[in-house]
Design a protein that fits this description.
Length: about 230
Amino acid sequence: MKSIISEGKTSNEAIENGIKELGVSRSDVDVKVLENEDKRSFYSILSPRIVKVELTVKEGRENVEERPKTVIKEEKELTEDNYNLAKEDLSKFLDSFSSAFGELSYEINKNNNLVEVNITGENSSKLIGYRGDIINALQTVISAIANKRTSDRVRISLDICDYKSKRENTLKELARKLEKTVLRTKKKVVLEPMTAYERKILHTELQNSKGVTTYSIGEEPHRKLVVDIKK
């Protein structure tokens, strides 16, 4: 039976890192905690917290696929009625928001099943925030407003001064640089916590890489993306 020792800041993170490396699911392994996160000596209190676990693949589970097949749900078409309701509610909110915030302009357009909201203006860059934290929070707000009266879920994409398109290009460039780094050093790279939207860009950019693979670890909102050598 195949066994490995995996590390993480918590036992859950260590286990998740291990099952990713083994290419199995949580139910396919037996877990033994080697260094418990709650048992730390006085002399190690200032050292980084590291939990070690031993994962042993259960007999007969060695050839289990890394992940179950994803069931792709058919996306419902955004009807004109739902789009018009969402646009009406969004316009009321953005009119009020713009007058309170300052000189802002906005556009609302339907792009297939997506409602795109674009905000511009002299002070609009203040709505982006550090690494997009404000724009992400604002998107959550307007998404709730857009879905207030619609019969089906309306998907929203908010952009401010083309921030997302610029950020997407930056992340794609980062993905390729990380790919080269991991291939050169033969060591995985763990990035700082990112939003699901940003992690998806990196996943997509490297999904066809012949040398590296990507996966996420941790829990939201501290979930991180890992770029690792493809086994």
